[in-house]
């Protein structure tokens, strides 16, 4: 069933949170399980003006506040909410087991959750069927967040995909765990021995990045990515939809996307859907590439056939140039925030900010692994959705893929009216200490 919003047309007088979309498991936090067609305001489970990040997984959602509190709701059959039970939750509820442990970032995978504390420790909960919790010899699921003891360095960025997860440490090292990419790797790279990080159920260092320093990691359904402090973007995993900007069907080790793909500019921020990516360069140009059959690239391809996934011999090289080549979207030049869902995007168009004066702390925002910047003082601005539909909407966005088989999605957004205040510019850098 679908429910239309009862929210009034007038803008809220103060900061507010809105949610809409797929809701079969209560992942919108509205207290029911009916889909919502129009943005509906959530009850104030916390001070909306203090929300630092919003993210979602297969059918669960998480909110982190400026004070480091974690609120969760939605599907919980594997304990992915970390509440100590497996009952679905229809309202945003505090994760009491983490009270007194300030949270920096949360990454929601399909049926699991990765949590980064402000002191750089990583915890996990939910399904562990594919080793995605990073706990060797652990149970098939954890209903309370458990520390990933093998990550001994301070972590600054985390990401969660369909059945794998990543972390970047303060020294710039990238770790990966979970066997989600292994089956594709074995099928597409017959006869090759896959690197340990593709098959490990505990954090394993990603080889091939030794000469770079990662500041941000991302995870798609079957691929991974890392952004370095030099503005270089590395990708690996499945390239079924051209999301790795490569001619190979599968990249078992990281490969840099050459600078000429971004008009010889450094990448300042990158966002990730299930099978497509969005990047913004240092001058504000926005590029998209990867899967396009739902319009998620926001541009017209050369032919209708390019929108359809094609079956091919795994031994053959991938040949989807129109989708696998990053291409800029002029209408999104200077976008101040971008968010990717499983098969859609949203972008905020507004004035730039002066980071030194704003107090904003850039931080990765994971569903599908996007990196965004959150902070106070956002103003209401225009939002452009993939397909380039324009709507008057808020400044702080998160997209969450749904567990529905027909690829419905749910979205949450934050409005913080503050006329004259600066707005955040997306950037992937280590979180402020």
TrEMBL record:
Main location: cytoplasm
Composition-biased stretches (Basic and acidic residues): 304-314
Limits of the RCC1-like domain: 17-348
UniProtKB keywords: Cytoplasm, Guanine-nucleotide releasing factor, Nucleus, Phosphoprotein, Repeat
Pfam families according to UniProt: WD40_RLD
InterPro entries xref list: RCC1-like_dom (IPR058923), RCC1/BLIP-II (IPR009091), Reg_chr_condens (IPR000408), Ub_ligase/GEF_domain (IPR051210)
UniProt key word Repeat: yes
Molecular function, one GO term: guanyl-nucleotide exchange factor activity
A single GO cellular-component term on record: cytoplasm
Keyword check for NADP: no
Per-repeat ranges for RCC: 15-67, 68-119, 120-171, 172-230, 231-283, 284-351
Subcellular location as annotated: Cytoplasm; Nucleus
Start and end residues of each stretch annotated as Disordered: 304-326
UniProt function note: Probable guanine nucleotide exchange factor (GEF), which may be involved in the secretion process.
Complex formation: Interacts with SEC5. The interaction occurs only in the presence of magnesium or manganese and is stimulated by dCTP or GTP.
Protein name: Secretion-regulating guanine nucleotide exchange factor
Gene it is expressed from: SERGEF
């Amino acid at each position: 069933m679908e429910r239309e919003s009862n929210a009034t047309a007038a803008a809220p007088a103060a900061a507010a949170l809105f949610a809409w979309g797929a809701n079969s498991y209560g992942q919108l936090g509205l207290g029911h399980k009916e889909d919502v067609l129009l943005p509906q305001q959530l009850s104030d489970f916390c001070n909306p003006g203090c929300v630092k990040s919003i993210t979602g997984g297969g059918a669960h959602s998480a909110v982190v506040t400026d004070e480091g509190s974690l609120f969760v709701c939605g599907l919980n059959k594997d304990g992915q909410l970390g509440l100590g039970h497996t009952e679905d939750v229809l309202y945003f509820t505090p994760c009491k087991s983490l009270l007194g442990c300030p949270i920096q970032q949360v990454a929601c995978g399909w049926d699991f959750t990765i949590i980064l504390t402000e002191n750089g420790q990583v915890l996990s909960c939910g399904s562990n069927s594919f080793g995605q919790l990073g706990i060797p010899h652990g149970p098939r699921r954890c209903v309370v967040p458990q520390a990933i003891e093998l990550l001994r360095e301070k972590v600054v960025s985390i990401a969660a995909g369909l059945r794998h997860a990543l972390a970047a440490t303060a020294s710039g090292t990238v770790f990966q765990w979970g066997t989600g990419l292994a089956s594709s790797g074995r099928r597409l790279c017959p006869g090759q021995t896959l690197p340990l990080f593709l098959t490990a159920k505990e954090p394993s260092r990603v080889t091939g990045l030794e000469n770079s320093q990662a500041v941000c990691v991302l995870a798609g359904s079957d691929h991974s990515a890392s952004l370095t402090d030099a503005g270089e973007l590395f990708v690996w995993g499945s390239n079924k939809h051209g999301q790795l900007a490569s001619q190979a069907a599968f990249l078992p080790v990281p490969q840099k996307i050459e600078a000429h793909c971004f008009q010889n500019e450094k990448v300042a921020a990158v966002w990730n859907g299930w099978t497509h990516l969005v990047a913004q360069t240092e001058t504000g140009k926005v590029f998209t590439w990867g899967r396009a059959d739902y319009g998620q690239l926001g541009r017209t391809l050369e032919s209708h056939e390019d929108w359809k996934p094609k079956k091919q011999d795994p031994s053959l090289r991938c040949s989807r140039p129109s989708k696998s080549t990053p291409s800029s979207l002029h209408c999104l030049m200077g976008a101040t925030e971008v968010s990717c869902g499983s098969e859609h995007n949203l972008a905020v168009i507004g004035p730039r900010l002066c980071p030194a004066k704003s107090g904003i702390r850039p931080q990765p925002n994971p569903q599908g692994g996007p990196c965004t910047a959150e902070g106070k003082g956002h103003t209401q601005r225009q939002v452009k959705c993939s397909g380039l539909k324009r709507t008057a909407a808020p400044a702080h966005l998160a997209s969450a893929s749904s567990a529905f088989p027909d690829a419905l999605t749910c979205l949450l957004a934050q409005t913080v009216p503050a006329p004259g205040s600066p707005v955040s510019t997306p950037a992937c850098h280590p979180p402020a200490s």
